[in-house]
Amino acid sequence: MKAYFGRRYMMSVSHRLHTTALTGEQNRAAYGKCNNEHGHGHNYFVEVLVGGAVDGETGMVVDLVALDEAVRSQVLERFDHANLNLDPLFADRVPTTENLCRTIFTLVKDALPAGELEQVRVEETENNSFECRAGG
Amino acid sequence: MIFLTRRATFSASHYYWNEAWTPEKNQQVFGRCANRNGHGHNYTLEVTVAGEPDPVTGFVVDLKWLKDVMEREVLAAYDHKHLNLDAPEFAHANPTTENIVIAAWKRLEPAVTAAGGARLSRIRVYETPEIFAEYRGEA
User: Which transformation does this protein catalyse, written as a reaction (chain A) (predicted)?
Assistant: First the structure.
């Protein structure tokens, strides 16, 4: 029987939305206060959802310790208390939360058994959230 | 199609134990959750139903009705109970969050289906604000 297991993590990260493809004025128009020259930051909540059959012996879908380790080593150690713009993964991409969500999905997917990761949701603030799903 | 979600909370105790295993293996696999005196959580049950708004009332379902169904089918069985000892579905199956969410679906689905209209779409059970399990009725 397929069920899903979800876990939420928090990370505090700075970024600046800015692209060299646009002029300074165009950047300000596109990104508004998120284009502030010296950046700004958020407490991001990362919600990881994995799917699979419920194990008959343990009653569990996933090894929580292994999931925590995958997210800690691949995501939290990399991004928590860091500046996204300085990370090589965002060298040529704007660190919007859309792009961050996709990046986290790929990092976690590659660290888990194939087919296990179902969805990653990133909440930038209480009012903004982004989701990336398997196959999407 | 509109998806409507209602939350409720319940407080319950439980422990994890596989009777087919030695005490040592239970301790090794389940850690602190294997403490036979149990421990407890404030759980949040999140029930999502899907349907079209009724042309007269504008409701997908009557929220008071959904609240009553959740209280009658799930909270009455789980709130302020010991899941291993008080809920028959966990007499021989571990009351993990995964198994609780599936059991809650089995308790709710007949009542929602019998009412006609909306169908049960998704259930989430949060064991803590950071940990939850989800079931969508899949085989």
Answer: 7,8-dihydroneopterin 3'-triphosphate + H2O = 6-carboxy-5,6,7,8-tetrahydropterin + triphosphate + acetaldehyde + 2 H(+)
Nearest to B98 by CA among A7, A59, A115: A59
* A5 close to B (CB below 8 A): yes
pTM of the model: 0.87
Q: Kindly report, residue by residue over A96-134, the tens digit of the pLDDT.
A: 999 999 999 999 999 999 999 999 999 999 989 999 999
What's the distance, Cα to Cα, between the start and end of chain B in Å? 23
Assign residue A118 the CATH number of its domain: 3.30.479.10
Taking only the tens place, the pLDDT of each residue in B30-53 is 999 999 999 999 999 999 999 999
Q: Domains along chain B?
A: 2-135 (3.30.479.10)
Range of the domain at A127: 2-133
Distance (Å, rounded) from C-alpha B52 to C-alpha B59? Answer: 8
Whether residue B93 lies within 8 A of chain A, CB to CB, comes out as: yes
Query: Which residues of chain B make contact with A61, given a CB cutoff of 8 A?
Result: 98, 133
- The interface residues of chain A toward chain B in range 75-134, judged by CB-CB distance below 8 A, are none
Secondary structure class of A100 (helix, strand, coil): helix
ipTM above 0.90 for this complex: no
